[in-house]
Specification:
The protein is built from 8 helices and 4 strands, in the order ααααααβααβββ. It is of the alpha+beta class. Strand 3 and strand 4 (135-140) form a beta hairpin.
Length: 149
């Protein structure tokens, strides 16, 4: 077994042991039809490509800070959505909110003054949101690290 395969397997097994969402991915693979994905698109969706993740890890290509890119994108008018599951402990909502409030862009003062408000879906509170100009921050009630599920 190659190092890439080994790293990918360890990463996958760690996710499977810790997150119920990952155990149910094959059953949920039909979900794109429910959210209106064009049926003409290929059906070979892959949520996480373990071999790709492993190759990034073995090449020391890891996460990099992007706040400066996000700020520049916002200043150019590019719409940015930062969303997080309220039950995600790895990428938690507190850190994501603080990150959104710390971005330096032309709308940052107005964004920081905007209060969080509930957003409603089908009559239920689906989370909290704050939006000014091109930036929207949103939490998703009841969601974890795999927020779309």
């Amino acid at each position: 077994m190659s190092l890439v395969s080994l790293v990918g397997r360890v990463y996958r097994d760690t996710l499977l042991s810790r997150y119920q969402e990952y155990r149910q991915v094959p059953r949920r693979s039909r979900r794109p039809k429910k959210i209106g994905v064009d049926s003409a698109l290929p059906a070979n969706f892959t949520g996480c490509a373990w071999d790709v993740k492993a190759r990034f890890c073995t090449a020391q290509d890891r996460m990099n800070p992007t706040q400066h890119h996000n700020s520049a994108s916002l200043d150019r008018g590019t719409r940015v959505l930062i969303y997080v599951g309220e039950n995600d402990w790895m990428c938690n909502w507190v850190a994501n909110e603080r990150t959104s409030l710390a971005l330096e862009w032309h709308g940052s003062i107005a964004f920081s003054k905007e209060p969080l408000r509930s957003w409603i879906h089908k009559g239920y509170v689906a989370g909290q949101t704050r939006s000014v100009g091109a930036l929207t921050y949103a939490t998703i009630s009841g969601a974890g690290h795999v927020a779309p599920y």
